[in-house]
Amino acid sequence: MKHLLKLLDWSGEDINEVLNLADQLKYEQKHGIAKKYLEGKTLGMIFEKASTRTRVSFEVGMFQLGGSALFLSSNNTQIGRGEPVEDTARVLSRYLDGIMIRTFEQSEVESLAQYGSIPIINGLTDFCHPCQVLADLMTIREIKGRLDGLKMSFIGDGNNMMNSLIVGALKSGMSISVACPENYEPDAKVVEFAKEYGDKFKMFRTPKEAVVDADVVITDVWASMGQEEEAQIRAKAFEGYQVNDELMSLAKEDAVVLHCLPAHRGEEITAEVFEAHADEIFEEAENRLHAQKAVMVYLMR
Ligand code: CP
Ligand code: NVA
């Protein structure tokens, strides 16, 4: 059984196949020829963290595919009261055709897959955000016409987004340079993986070094969900890591800027850069819908 637990588990071919399917589903939806690929199927959506895009795009996506989606908050299910994931997995597998989960620990997602018997989709953990990165790759390919040979730069925290972008970019033939302060590096497993790609992965301390000649510049919040109490300490650590006009002048002139959202203008990105690239950023948000529909069809059909 295939899952989407993290992009490290997927091959470049898996990614490419889902991106092609996402393009097809987007085309079909826009031209009124959408098919009900998942008619009669049900997706359970477990949320232990807040969400706007992930929740709405999965629910709408499932509806458009002819199925239905069930919102399961940890606040009012037994999950929030400590029922073991091993039991939740085995129970929900008997009702549902697939589960999307947004939670803290990556191990919880892996356990769902281990004990359940239906496809599991990671809708964000502290470790990674694979659905977002599939939408990001889809958006880059749409705008640039290819992924192979392009340079991506990620400026900021070595968080779930940086981890997934490193893996997704390298597996898609892109090179990636990241800039992060000391103690905010990407996960060691991801760095280990990236080393196999030699010069295609570079890690810097200064954003300027990372962004030179970039085709795509990406950033994300400095304090992720669950890190709210450290926000001030983090803001200090990330001083100088803002994506602003001065930094963008070092990237290629036609560089794309992406942000998974929500964005904090004046922190990781200026309002000027954000608004100059708003069309790209909101296309990226729309593509969550198409990319996730592709993931669901790929795993659940
Ligand atoms: N980018 C993203 O995952 O957004 P939400 O937190 O709103 O789902
Ligand atoms: N790094 C952010 C991404 C939000 C979509 C977080 O985990 O909060």
Form type? globular
User: Distance between termini?
Assistant: 12 Å
CATH topology of the largest domain: Rossmann fold
Helix and strand composition category: alpha/beta
The number of helical runs is 12
Helix content: 40-55%
Give the biggest sheet.
5 strands, parallel
Sequence of secondary-structure elements = HEHEHEHEHEHEHEHEHHEHH
Which features would summarize this protein structure in a list?
single chain; 301 residues; Rossmann fold; 4-stranded parallel beta sheet; 9 strands; binds phosphoric acid mono(formamide)ester; binds norvaline
Summarize the structure in words.
The chain is α/β, with parallel strands linked by helices and 301 residues long. The protein has 2 domains: 7-129 and 288-300, Aspartate/ornithine carbamoyltransferase (Rossmann fold), CATH 3.40.50.1370; 131-284, Rossmann fold. It is 43% helix and 14% strand. The chain contains 12 helices and 9 strands. It has helices at residues 12-30, 53-64, 85-92, 106-115, 130-144, 160-171, 188-195, 207-211, 231-237, 245-248, 271-276, 278-300, and strands at residues 42-47, 68-73, 98-102, 120-122, 151-155, 175-179, 201-204, 216-219, 256-259. The strands form 2 sheets. Strands 7-6-5-8-9 form a 5-stranded parallel beta sheet. A 4-stranded parallel beta sheet has the order 2-1-3-4, sandwiched between helices. β1, α2 and β2 form a beta-alpha-beta unit. α1 crosses α5 (130-144), α3 packs across α4 (106-115) and α5 (130-144) crosses α6. The N and C termini lie close together (12 Å). It binds phosphoric acid mono(formamide)ester (CP) and norvaline (NVA). Norvaline binds next to α6.
